[in-house]
Write the structure tokens for this entry.
Amino acid sequence: MQYEVELKFSLTSSERSADALKTQLTELGAQYHSTVRQRDLYFAHPARDFAQTDEALRIRCVDQDNCVTYKGPVIDRQTKTRHEIEIPFASGSDQSQQFGEMLEQLGFRRVRTVEKTRDTYRLDWQGRWLELALDQIAELGEFIEIESLADDNDRDEARDCTLSLAQELQLKDQERRSYLCMLIEQDES
């Protein structure tokens, strides 16, 4: 089973600049990969409340590339570790729109769209490759995510590695809510 092991920290609330963090990442040997604009369309299940079960279903669009992702409930108290299934599908905005329409015809309900600009880096940390994402969400500010993919055999190692890097970067006040959850809470206030 494939797991995503993730830590997320707000840079806006910590008054830490993304540029200073990028410099620190480069000094640690992180390799810049790309800057992308992501558009995530989230859906609610017709028969169960994903907010209660801590699950998510989304369509992610990056340029013309599309994928559908299911995220299971968080299974770790220190990180946002969860089962993840991600399946790419046909490219193009028409295809992502049609996939969304199909989900709606099956009873799923569109919840919200999350748009962000993401700078991605890769870092070999303690013998494990980590993906680092510096995200900017207009309504929320700047964040860093530290992420590793793992299976049942190395989930604890991935968790320890992500926590170790967060400590090295002196990141504090982990944000355990998803961007979707933060935006919905903001919409309701």
In short: Strands lie at 3-10, 31-44, 56-62, 65-74, 82-89, 109-125, 128-137, 141-150.
